[in-house]
Amino acid sequence: MKRRSILRRYIQIANIIKERILSHEYIVGEKIPYGHQLCEEFSCSKITLNNALDILVNEGFIARQRGLGTIVKTASPQHLPVPGKLNPPIQGVSRLHEAQGIEVRSHLLLFDIAQPSAAVATQLAMSDDQYAWHFKRVRYVDNQPLSIEDTWIPVRILPDFTRQDALGSVYQFVEKSLRKVPCSSHTRFYSLPSDDEAQAWLDLAANEPVSVTLSVTYLNDGQPFEYCTSHYHYQRFNYNAVVQRN
């Protein structure tokens, strides 16, 4: 009987926190209150609170980062893979095209270590004193320019990342080096007038636009690892989605 009461308690706490996320009381990209504050508010033990937060991690609402706290990922999460089952990787540019025998290559415009802006750092659950790999590359598919990608990846996640790795498939490098899978991505889509850089590298005329994606990609352990803004040649940009109603 006591065990059943504890079970109901941590589910109840998870539902309260979820409601605060859905109502935007807890803002996407920001931390929720610290564990000891929530334990005091809900008059519960750390074990009960951790069980509640584990539910929200598995449902995709939050990401927990040692030393940084608990970050709200989204108020409308994609479902995370079920532990113990095969976690399907995101189909990046390399995997998508090379599976069809199409050559993909990259040209680096920038490769550096830097501190990201506060907005990018928040999305990547980084503290103010942490650094990230910052690289910009042009992606070519069958020798035609597809996109310019501007990417940030925390150094603490990929400490051994190199310029050569940035030329290849980042997602496949992550899978091999970390034994983790990039499995969910929150992406915005919009269009902009092309600038001088896009016109030069994507073979666009001054009056032609670019299609833009802004993505935060998460590993299958829930942590955000990549912030990427991509500018695509508008004629070569394709977006396919599968929407399922549960």
User: Would you give the CATH topology of the largest domain?
Assistant: Chorismate lyase
CATH superfamily of the largest domain: Chorismate lyase-like
Total count of strands: 8
Strand order of the largest sheet: 3-4-5-8-7-6
SS class: alpha+beta
Biggest β-sheet: count, sense, barrel? 6 strands, antiparallel
Describe the 3D structure.
This protein is α+β, with helices and mostly antiparallel strands and 246 residues long. The protein has two domains: 2-72, Arc Repressor Mutant, subunit A (Orthogonal Bundle), CATH 1.10.10.10; 93-233, Chorismate lyase (3-Layer(aba) Sandwich), CATH 3.40.1410. Helix content is 30%, strand content 30%. The chain has helices at 2-22, 35-42, 46-58, 93-98, 118-123, 163-167, 170-178, 196-201; strands at 62-65, 69-72, 104-114, 132-141, 144-154, 182-193, 209-219, 224-233. The strands form two sheets. A six-stranded antiparallel sheet has the order 3-4-5-8-7-6. A two-stranded antiparallel sheet has the order 1-2. Helix 1 (2-22) packs across helix 3. It is elongated, with a radius of gyration of 20 Å. It starts with a helix and ends in a 13-residue tail after the last strand. Mean pLDDT is 82; it is low at 1-7, 78-89 and 242-246.
